[in-house]
TrEMBL record:
Gene3D superfamilies: Dihydrodipicolinate Reductase, domain 2, NAD(P)-binding Rossmann-like Domain. Residues 13-130 form the Gfo/Idh/MocA-like oxidoreductase N-terminal domain. InterPro entries: Gfo/Idh/MocA-like_OxRdtase_N, Gfo/Idh/MocA_oxidoreduct, GFO_IDH_MocA-like_dom, NAD(P)-bd_dom_sf. This is Oxidoreductase. GO terms for molecular function: nucleotide binding; oxidoreductase activity. Belongs to the Gfo/Idh/MocA family. It comes from Arthrobacter pityocampae.
Length: 353
């Protein structure tokens, strides 16, 4: 991507497009927390969400469209897209066309060809385009990455990762109606995180096998089991699902000299949803979770693997550094595009049942 010219070191005025779960739980508090950003406008058409914005962020303008936002605050520099999946591509294109840098929630896009056009448009405009793969900063994933990079397990052969929950009904109408072509289903949702983490750890991969199940009456899959074969020889087994009364360990990694297992869930999302500010996440996470929720070694010779608190604020800190010319973007768009390509290949080869 064409390097972005350094910007003056003043807060970048930011418009958040969407104030559903992603916008309200993740992006709004994280943007507000970062001293390099100013949450100036929130775009939502919902009167109830507009009132929630005014209560939580009284200095932010509430607008119905991106056009309205730009009229209200002409000096916006960054747009954060946190809307339903099928709208990511057109809204990102609109924001880039208005001269804004863009953060777009996962999945980056639904169709890889749209992502290619957006990457090209951002490059031509000299703007940053940064997908929000925040799970790279989960505490448990950081612990796995540290162990793998340190060679603590020897040569890794098998990586197992699961994000599962028990949600027997589909509560949001758009999620029930959205098929894979619209970005619906667990692969575009939780699977985006799982695939991104696997590629981040072990590099390029091809899908070797998948099982997709439709059990809740929606237009897309509720659960997915995916096998990836990485170019370096590692095999990844990825589980994502909404009908798991008993969940698997979050991570299991098998190497030639040992293995590791981590149970439980990174608490950052729950803490943000409960209103804990980003600056309080680390201390709250330490108090809320058992730090030694992992083990490492071999049967009969294991030791505790301490999982530290995650670091979601690091995403926007990295973004601000990139805007100021002080580093690369925290998540390159090309890497998120690789995730979308794999999801499309899996859906094409294994349509599910």
């Amino acid at each position: 991507m064409t390097p972005v010219a350094p910007r003056p070191r003043r807060p970048v005025r930011t418009v958040l497009v969407g104030f559903g779960h992603g916008g309200s739980v993740f992006h709004a508090p994280l943007v507000q927390h970062d001293p390099g950003l100013d949450l100036a406008v929130v775009v939502t058409r919902s009167p109830e969400r507009g009132e929630a914005v005014r209560a939580a962020y009284p200095s932010a303008v509430v607008a119905a469209t991106l056009d309205d936002a730009l009229r209200a605050v002409p000096d916006l520099g960054l747009a954060v897209i946190a809307t339903p999946h099928a709208t990511h591509a057109p809204l990102t294109a609109e924001a880039l066309g208005r001269g804004l840098h863009v953060v777009v929630d996962k999945p980056f896009v639904v169709h890889a060809e749209d992502g290619v056009r957006l990457v090209d448009a951002a490059r031509a405009a000299g703007r940053l385009l940064v997908p929000f793969h925040n799970r790279r900063w989960d505490g448990d994933f950081l612990a796995v990455r540290e162990a793998v990079l340190a060679g603590a397990l020897g040569e890794v052969r098998l990586f197992e990762s699961a994000m599962e929950s028990w949600k027997p009904s589909i509560r949001k109408p758009w999620k029930r109606a959205a098929g894979p072509a619209d970005g619906g289903g667990v692969l575009y949702d939780l699977g985006s995180h799982l695939i991104d983490q696997a590629l981040t750890l072990f590099g390029p991969a091809v899908p070797e096998y998948a099982e997709l199940r439709h059990d809740r009456g929606g237009a897309a899959e509720d659960s997915a089991f995916v096998v990836l074969r990485h170019d370096g020889g590692v095999t990844s087994h990825l589980h994502a699902g909404s009908l798991a009364p008993l969940t698997r360990p979050r991570f299991r990694v098998t190497g030639t000299q040992g293995g590791l297992e981590i149970t439980g869930v990174d608490p950052q999302e729950a803490l943000l949803a409960a209103g804990v500010p980003p600056e309080g996440i680390a201390n709250a996470a330490r108090a809320l979770t058992e730090p030694a929720r992992g083990v490492m070694g071999r049967d009969g010779d294991t030791r505790a693997l301490v999982v530290g608190p995650g670091r979601y604020p690091a995403f926007y800190a990295g973004l601000v550094a990139a805007l100021e010319g002080d580093g690369p973007p925290p998540v390159p768009a090309d890497q998120a595009l690789d995730v979308v390509r794999l999801i499309e290949r899996i859906h094409a080869a294994y349509p599910g049942r």
